[in-house]
Amino acid sequence: MVLVAQAAFAQEIKLDSTEQKASYIIGRNIAGEVANPNVPFDIDALVAGFRDGLTGADSKLTDEQAQAAITQFQALAQAKMQKMAEEDAAKGQEFLAENAKKEGVKTTKSGLEYKIEKAGTGATPKLTDTVVCHYEGKLIDGTVFDSSYKRGEPAEFPVNRVIAGWTEALQLMKVGAKWKLYIPSDLAYGPQGNRSIPPNSVLIFDIELLGIK
Asked: Which Gene3D superfamilies would you find in this protein's record (predicted)?
């Protein structure tokens, strides 16, 4: 969760009773639902609004003021996200262009780039198969956004139910192989991104194909 403005009234709270603990974790969960690194909430004002809403206190803004503020805020957030998406797209294209020149990196017709770190000797998955893999996913700045290694167990999923870059790569691999994938955004999450992946992000994956089920 990324909230730009820091709370001026931050203080220690007691988390002794079940009610206190439950209230705290519910608050965290709600924050997790609304938090967005591209939306600079003012934490003091956010908490004040949350408290007023819970206690039934009158709003400090009229309906007209509230609507105007939300409309303007959404426009600013959208403009910021659009600018960041365009910058990320340019960075991704530059990264892939340079990466394709590196020794051992191959590029498919779709634009998927990969490097074979360990050749497999087993069977190759079909589109309708379910595979067992260990993997770690990173952004081009090195930020890890997902890792089966950290969870301590491999993942299982249908070949045809993952991002396009994975679906393509898995059908080229053999069981026992370990590849590094460099996936263009249009073969990943595209301009939409998701909560942990910014729009237009190139993704880097280390994948071990452990088995086919």
From this structure: 3.10.50.40, Peptidyl-prolyl cis-trans isomerase, FKBP-type, N-terminal domain
Examine residue 154 and state whether it is found in any structural domain, yes or no.
Answer: yes
φ, ψ of residue 125 in degrees (nearest 5) = -65, 150
Bridge partners for 130 per DSSP: 158
Catalytic residues, by residue number, are 135, 145-146, 163, 189, 205
Q: How many domains does the chain have?
A: 1
Q: Where are the beta strands (DSSP E) in the chain?
A: 105-107, 113-118, 130-139, 144-147, 155-158, 178-183, 203-212
Spatial separation of the C-alpha atoms in residues 177 and 172, rounded to whole Å: 10
Q: What is the pLDDT of residues 130-176, one digit of tens each?
A: 999 999 999 999 999 999 999 999 999 999 999 999 999 999 999 99
* Segments forming the whole domain that contains residue 116: 85-212
Helix (H, G, I), strand (E, B) or coil at 151: helix
pTM to 2 decimals? 0.70
* Chain centroid offset of residue 101 CA: 27
